[in-house]
Amino acid sequence: MKENTASDILRVIFTVILVPVLFLLTAAAILEMTALNPVYWKKTIFGKEGREFIVDSFMEEGPTDNGLLEELELDDNYTKDMFSDFMNIMIDEAFEVVIDEDTEVDRDRFDDFLDKYDYDEILEDKGMSRSEISDKKDEIYDVFNEQLEELHDDLNEDGTLKEINRISEKLNRTVICTAIIAVILMVPLMIIHKNKWRPVRNFGIALWVSQLGTCLIWLLLFIATAAAYEEKLVERSSESDAVIGHLVKNMVGGITLFYFALLILGFVIMGVAIKMIGITNDTIIDSEDGAGSYDNEDGMGYRDYNDPSFSPVNME
């Protein structure tokens, strides 16, 4: 009975400690995977939906007004599909700068884009010769490379990339340290408990509690950013503000989903463990001399029912 009481006390203490540990672990991991991960930005925030929104937002301005297609001198010879393909190239190349610090546009992809929309014919209609067209394409390519170099220089001068890397390294260390602490807390519980599902249940409880408050905070933040974004659209703010608002909303929404998934995971672990505790407690275990069972009260004490000294009246 003393062993059971000690196990219960340790389980409660370690569960209480696990709550802040799991909070730090999951918070650091989620931020590392989302807000500080350019690959995540590219695949989700600047995914298909985000890029379509950007294209729709800027299409009304035309190539000359927004400056994005000004160097191509298309005048009215452009379509939404052309603008969309162009934006895909520029967004991908911008992420190459952020992720790999590559400031050179993929020339083959750039030439394929121009060929797809018969750019040579557009320039021929403007009276350009073959050599002038070739020089013009080289000039445009150089201009876009210069824009990427300027982006790279701006990110380095204001310390954005350096700061992202510094915070990312700090979060990585936090994840490693808190994961080690969580293991150190769980291993003794798994050792001292004969019914291993009891510490698993408490782990689920700790995970659920650690995510509940954070999930609610991010949900409220998502609602607030979504409302602010809708207000910007109603006020017909600049297209840049609308795009930024949309991207921020997607970022916050993605983080909220991560926390919600962990909240559900904690609840599932807790539910499964509670079910398995009941099954384990009701299972009769065969011993060398006969059959035995875990005590249905605490799941800790093993009873050998073939022992002559065993009496239901004296169950402790």
Alpha-carbon Rg, integer: 31 Å
Count every beta strand, where a strand is a DSSP E run of 2 or more residues. Answer: 3
**What strand order characterises the main sheet?**
1-2-3
Category by helix and strand content: mainly alpha
The termini sit apart by 7 Å
Q: How confident is the prediction overall: mean pLDDT?
A: 80
The ordered string of helix (H) and strand (E) elements is HHHHHHHHHHHEEE
* Fraction in beta strands: under 5%
Largest sheet: number of strands, sense, barrel closure? 3 strands, antiparallel
Provide a descriptive summary of the structure in words.
By secondary structure, the protein is mostly helical. It folds into 2 domains: 1-33 and 175-281, no CATH class; 37-158, no CATH class. Helix content is 75%, strand content 3%. It has 11 helices and 3 strands. It has a 3-stranded antiparallel sheet, with no helix packed on it. A hairpin with a 7-residue loop joins strand 2 (291-294) and strand 3 (302-304). It starts with a helix and ends in a 12-residue tail after the last strand.
